[in-house]
Amino acid sequence: MSLDPSYITPGKDFDRDTNYIEDRITQDGRDGWPVEPGRYRLVAARACPWANRTTIVRRLLGLEGVISLGLPGPTHDKNSWTFDLDPGGVDPVLGIERLQQAFFARFPDYPRGITVPAIVDVTSGQVVTNNYPQITLDFETEWIAHHRAGAPDLYPQALRAEIGEVANLIFHDVNNGVYKCGFAGSQKSYERAYDALFARLDWLEERLAGQRYLVGDTITEADIRLFTTLARFDAVYHGHFKCNRNKLSEMPVLWAYARDLFQTPGFGDTIDFNQIKKHYYVTHVDINPSGIVPKGPDAAAWLAPHSRADLGGRPFGTGTPPEPPLPAERIVN
């Protein structure tokens, strides 16, 4: 597979393209895409932290029987994510080999990167949206009639402003901050991103010392957005992206917080460490030209006791944990 080596622009900061397809799937169908069980397929690679958010929310809200899940493999070439894990390399529902085909079915001259997560309209085979921050918010608000009994409120109305503020800080300094380190094109841009990343992690360490979750006393969208980066920190970002002031496992509060979420149904059961490591270490050939994938760290450490319940809090509020993953979606690390 020919992989794209152009992640780093010499002399430049990493600048993420955040221009996504802004169509939304809503109850009133105002963009032409009404909420409709069975109509849409979520395409979300296990390796990708942005896609991982959508698989967690889908699990927590019990949308597995409403929105199907397509799983590309952990690596991709310069053109697209591919369905190389499926028999014959073809997605069994969409009938395509590359996610790119769904984008081109709607936009024949689509000029940007083919990203996950993406939602595809199964009947037409056309991509609906790849706007990952909005996808989870819409799962939480527009699909509410199809949530499972006992589904948690991940985006409480009274806390939305604070969730947005915290999530914005986390995005710039942590979620995207690790990429600003890893894809920095100069020493100065790397050090600037490095300093911002660890200043924010220190801020989170302090914030979470006295409260179990980021906003309020239950799991919210803010926790989900932070978790997917923390889950990849020691396995990938610490070494591969040079985020090496310390490991997550050397930050006692954040490490316990991350383990608490990992051991919560709907979180750790979406994490495939093997695919995560393969994606970063094989795809980013400009950073790791050998393509060698590290064996460690030992994932068993994620199951160690965390004592975060001593802080109180109710993981699912007045709701309940989700059922175990569907057999076809279970992960063996």
Automatic annotation (TrEMBL):
Glutathione binds at residue 81. The keyword Ion transport does not apply. This is Glutathione S-transferase family protein. Residues 312-333 are annotated as: Disordered. The record marks 237, 280 as: Lowers pKa of active site Cys. GO terms for cellular component: cytoplasm. The active site is at residues 48, 179. Transmembrane segments: none annotated. The keyword Heme does not apply. CDD domains: GST_C_Omega_like. It comes from Cryobacterium luteum. One of its GO terms (molecular function) is glutathione transferase activity. Gene3D superfamilies: 1.20.1050.10, Glutaredoxin. Keywords: Transferase. InterPro entries: Glutathione-S-Trfase_C-like, Glutathione-S-Trfase_C_sf, Glutathione_S-Trfase, Glutathione_S-Trfase_N, GST_Omega-like_C, GST_Omega/GSH, Thioredoxin-like_sf. It comes from the Bacteria.
